[in-house]
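Researcher: Here's the sequence for the chain we discussed earlier.
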Amino acid sequence: MSEENGKNGEEELHDVIPVSGMYENWFLDYASYVILERAVPAIEDGLKPVQRRILHAVKEMDDGRFNKVANVIGSTMQYHPHGDASISDAIVNIGQKDLLLDTQGNWGDVRTGDGAAAARYIETRLSKFALEVIYNPQTTEWQLSYDGRKKEPVTFPVKFPLLLAQGVEGIAVGLSTKILPHNFVELLEASIGILKGKKPKLYPDFLTGGKIDVSDYNDGHRGGKVRVRASIEEVDSKTIAIRDIPFGTTTTSLIDSIVKANDKGKIKIKQVIDNTAKDIEILIKLAPGVSPDITIDALFAFTDCEVSISPNACVIIQDKPHFVGVSEILKHSVDQTVSLLRQELEIKKGELLEKILFSSLEKIFIENRIYRDIEECETWEDVISTIDKGLDPYKPQFYREITQDDIVRLTEIKIKRISKYDTFKADELLKKFEEELKETEYHLDHITDFSIQYYQNLIDKYGKGRERKTEITNFDTIAATVVAANNAKLYVNREDGFIGYGLKKDELIGECSDIDDIIVFRKDGKCLVTKIQDKVFVGKDILYAGVFKKGDERMVYNLAYVDGKSGRSMVKRFQVLSVTRDREYDLTRGAKGSKVHYFSANPNGEAEVVTVFLTAASKARKKVFDFDFAELEIKGRGAGGNILTKYPVRKVQFKAAGVSTLGGLDIWYDEIVGRLNTDKRGKKLGNFGPDDLIIVFYNDGSYELTSFELTNRYETNKVIGISKFDPDKAVSAVHIDGESKMVYVKRFIVETSTIGKRFNFISEAKGSKLYFACNDEETTVDVKYKEGRSHQNKTFDLDELIDVKGWKAIGNKFPVQNVLEVNRVESEPDKETTDDNEGSLEELKSSIKEEVEKEDNQLGLFNKGKGDEE
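Model: Thanks. This is the structure I predict for it:
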């Protein structure tokens, strides 16, 4: 028994299969299957297998009428070995893109996130566009379906960049793909450009509209990104409206993100109303006292009103996944289209040659009465031979040899056709075939021109209504700390050294947001910046705590301290522009025992006057004196400062407030993003003091006075002009009156002073429009206008055309009508003045050089004398 058991055990050991390597092979098989058969599209037609099988099934069912989607799903399951749910989702996805399928019924809404009705309630059929660009059995490569019963296409012979038009997203095993949709017309125009030797520039376009910043698109490669924003506009001072939403979001998800941001205190709103129907409209009611401009920025910073999308173009090329750019995908599509068009022309050429050949054979057979020669033939072979012999004199004119099949076709001609044969009609038909052949051969010889015409024909037939929906623009960078709503309060315990929004029993400093940084100054001359928390220790004896704004050049700190080493009291004015968070910085000279006498923080660079009290025991004759901080220059935080006094100081006390020692703020307007800045981007508006304003002119004929806050937003597509407001100068304007259709010029003084309210100064009749407006002395304009069939240009000085009148006056009739555009003529500096200035500059340089040499000589004599004394 034991021997038998031992033998059986050995046999069982031999049957054991090692598992090492099995998992690896199985995993690779599975991963390859998912990549090639499920998730990633082929570059040839831009379709995943399920999409290709759906379109093949719809074509098999196509009779021009709508089919129930449930029937399409059942037909597709003959080719697709998966469940009906995945097929249904894929059909709805194709239908919602409004390109390949005509739809009927409730197919859902990508904007709101509403799903489609059940498959039994909705219908579809192929669009005319799909029938034209996707299908051609003669140029399609076929394969057997999964069960071998049916034939399905390997890929469709698509003559259009379908992959880029529809976009695609898929997650496979170990990789994913994300190609953003692009504009239909732009893709065709770019294809024409490639055929003309131009390099294409392609940017995404979304059905949901909105705005897009493509600065980092990187041609759709991995590592690139686009920023997409909702279109938001200010309805009034208490309401803002969202008109378009970012790609990948829905009105529901967008509203949820807005509500969450409000709940967290990032924004302050009263109500969100979704009025979306045919067009998107989400109204946001603001809380009292909240700025619409800052709220719009906060929506971009804290909600889904701005999203970042990272493309990752991965496609199947020759049964392998490749990461490519959208330009390369388009180039492949163009090359494939040209190749397919050539194949179709070659096929057409062959068909025409056959038609010409048989028409010629038929004509010879009937006109030469060859059919009579076969009346006496007794066998089929004799019939074929007799006809072949009758055709012998004409065979050299044919492009190929005459086969038995050709002769058989001649014998199949009916007697009725022979008896009614019309030579003239036959010649006309033959001539038509020959003209078509000549045209086809011409297209083959000029295949590039033919391909360009093909693309242009697609634009003409299907381009209407497919214009770009997403506006390409540059986005400004929004600092979250600037636009975050104040949702917390800052408290300080000066003695124990704590700050935070949880110290509600201690001293209230002011409001802040929960993402702010707080700067703290202590009595020992140290400062630090830390993130606000519920409660955080920053060091005892706090002199000042406040919200820190990085890079704020207007905030100036005034400090008086005693140096622990020398005993001298020092004064300094400094800025803190950037720091490392939670790192302590010493504002004194660093000696032990240094301490602060006096400290103040000045948001606009004010310099106050203080009174210095010396100790009673000091030897100074004047023990009380005043000091004005305006005497000091503003330096960095590391500067030691100037000597205030060498005598011991008892205290330094505030005496009188001063004015800002900073000059006005230079403001620029960036016309691309419609924002103000101090970074020298765009057009310089001027130097602004605290009471200065900006005047904005809009194309509807209104103006608005605004502050110069950097958070202001201006609609670039509506702004005609923007400048620093000068109340003493007249506004000069050129406008058209919608009622009379006449162009007028007017000049008036702005009499209003309300900030943030628009005032209309031209007719409100439909068709009224403002061409030009300015609020300065430069009133020379170049006017482009239409005269007859030609365009003319003429220069006018507006202040010579009309005097200053009331703002309600319509103005004087403009010297020319049919105005197309009006542009300012920038004045050039006078040449003589320039030459004089150049001469003066040379004289100044020479004078400075003489002074420097003179000072050097004096300094040399002084140093020499000093050396002799030593």
